[in-house]
Amino acid sequence: MNITAKILNPRVKTNHRTESNNSLVDYYTEAGPDYEFWSKNFNMHFGYAEKRWDCLSREKMLQRMNEVLLKSLELKPGNDVVDLGCGLAATIRYGARKYPKTFFKGITITPWQVEKSQELINRLNLKNASVVYGDYANLNIQSDTIDAAFGLESISHAEGTNKTKPLNEAFRILKPGGRFTMIDGFIKKPERELSNAVKGMYRLVCQNWALPSFPNINEVVYELKSIGFREIEVDEISWKIAPSAVHAPFLSLFFLIKSFFTGKKLKRQNWNNLKACFTIFFLGIFRKSIGYYKISAKK
């Protein structure tokens, strides 16, 4: 039985209660289309530079990140995979092409993303990928039915620095032996211990990207162990994503100039996105406080 039969009531429900407040939905509804400027395939994350010349192509780095993530899940034909916070489904579109006998389901709380994602999936005629409306902190998926789950720069939108609710849900829906991967930016110490300069930039990024907080690397690893995950592997990949992060401030400036000359009127969420993109590169310089990690685990 494939994943479509395991998702209960996959239709959009606009009155569905979510873990996040409306600012998150507003942000991705208004600023979501801007991401096409970052990636023609709507990859809404940083890239992974594996080879020396990857840094010359942002799209190649973004696709490489999808490849690295999916490889960590050790997928097999017939597997059912859930993307916890899929954005515009770039990762599952990539996965559906690379693994044609694996079934991918994306979850998002933004109705616009459901519609746009399905449009992009239909353009490629992908029969093994789909996107539904849902809350990854309260998934409408049966327990012990999924082979793999992941969150790529999405679980940071959950409340708390240990991100306990989506991690618990990931564990619940996975079959015994199922694999989980989380890739995101993390703080390495409690916010109160950050320097004033780092704290200022950190709060600006959180506020403008609709993040309650970054996950704390130590708290998340402890939470995974407490929930029952095993074989937990933690890899800091900050230097691998740095080349793509360098693109962010320059691309933000170029987007601003282009918007001015084309007469595009920017809304508040567009401005917020630009401010966060410009700031995140400088925040990433403080490696003792901030890092980018890939965490893999097995149920």
CATH topology, anyone? Rossmann fold
Average of the residue pLDDT scores: 88
Note the run of SSEs as H and E: HHHEHEHEEHEHHEHHE
Number of helices: 10
What is the strand tally? 7
Corresponding CATH superfamily: Vaccinia Virus protein VP39
Which sequence of strands runs across the widest sheet? Answer: 3-2-1-4-5-7-6
What is the name of the CATH architecture?
A: 3-Layer(aba) Sandwich
Using the coordinates above, name the CATH class: Alpha Beta
Rg result = 18 Å
In terms of DSSP E residues, the strand content is 15-25%
The number of domains is: 1
Main pleated-sheet profile:
7 strands, mixed
User: What is the helical fraction, as a range of percent?
Assistant: 40-55%
Q: How far apart are the first and last residues' alpha carbons, in Å?
A: 21 Å
Shape call: globular
What structural class is derived from the secondary structure elements?
A: alpha/beta
Low-confidence stretches: 1-21
Compose a concise summary of this entry.
The protein has helices at residues 22-31, 35-38, 58-72, 90-98, 111-123, 164-173, 196-208, 217-227, 238-262, 268-283; strands at 80-84, 103-108, 129-133, 146-152, 174-187, 230-236, 290-298. It has 299 residues and is α/β, with parallel strands linked by helices. The protein starts with 21 loop residues before the first helix and ends with a strand.
